[in-house]
From TrEMBL:
This is HAD-superfamily. GO terms for molecular function: phosphatidylglycerophosphatase activity. GO terms for cellular component: cytoplasm. The lineage of its organism: Eukaryota, Viridiplantae, Chlorophyta, core chlorophytes, Trebouxiophyceae. It comes from Chlorella sorokiniana. NCBIfam families: HAD-SF-IIIA (TIGR01662), YqeG_hyp_ppase (TIGR01668). It holds the Pfam family PGP_phosphatase.
Length: 222
């Protein structure tokens, strides 16, 4: 039941409808990668970014799992070093007041993954940047948002002026049906908009696609 509640995100659906009708750039990430190994964290830190905000399911772990996916372990360590530990997990379950009022789930995740979980009130893509800005002590546009969902993570990051990175999900295994359906719809829409030439919102530290591409690396480096 709780999973159903977590996957039904009415504010998110309403916001995505608005994005689809009038603000398509918000759904498009600045960087699309197969997984986070393709991101050059040192280049991002060198360009002036100050910290990273991660989604959990299908970004760092398989859905509802507590272990880092083997593909991301070394990259996450690299990210931690590049940003001197300034990483945070922003989940639509753990740390969300509605589902985790006493922060128990957040504490379990923090122990399992070794990343602080931001306590917050709103589900992505709703919500502003105050909690993140307070946590990091910088502007949201100096932060990188990394998450697999266009509807939640990318729209949330772009609405708050962050640089958005979208890794492909690891697996459909364990995803609630509502999420699979939402994923299919948003992937189709995003593909259509990309083919029509829609670009993500401009970001001051990545002014065009070529500038954003400088933050990519080939995982053969690993
Ligand atoms: Mg996710």
């Amino acid at each position: 039941m709780q999973r159903l509640g977590q996957s039904f995100n009415s504010a998110g659906i309403a916001l995505f409808a608005r994005v689809a009708l009038s603000d398509q750039p918000l759904a498009l990430p600045h960087l699309s990668v197969p997984d986070i190994r393709w991101v050059d964290w040192n280049a991002l830190a060198g360009a002036g970014f100050r910290g990273c905000v991660f989604d959990k399911d299908n970004t760092l772990t398989e859905p509802y799992q507590l272990e880092l996916h083997p593909h991301v372990k070394a990259s996450l360590e690299e990210c931690r070093r590049a940003f001197e530990g300034r990483l945070v997990l922003y989940s639509n379950s753990a740390g969300l007041q509605q589902f985790d009022p006493d922060g128990k789930e957040a504490a379990v995740l923090e122990r399992a993954l070794g990343i602080p979980v931001l306590r917050h009130r709103d589900k992505k893509p709703a919500g502003g940047s105050e909690d993140m800005e307070r946590h990091f002590g910088c502007k949201a546009e100096e932060l990188v948002m990394v998450g697999d969902r266009y509807l939640t993570d990318v729209v949330f990051g772009n609405r708050n002026g962050m640089l958005t990175v979208r890794p492909a999900p690891f697996t459909a295994k364990g995803e609630p049906k509502a999420v699979l359906l939402a994923r299919a719809i948003e992937e189709r829409l995003v593909k259509r908009w990309q083919m029509a030439g829609v670009q993500p919102p401009p970001h001051p530290l990545a002014t065009n696609p070529a500038a954003a591409a400088a933050f990519l690396q080939h995982p053969d480096n690993w």
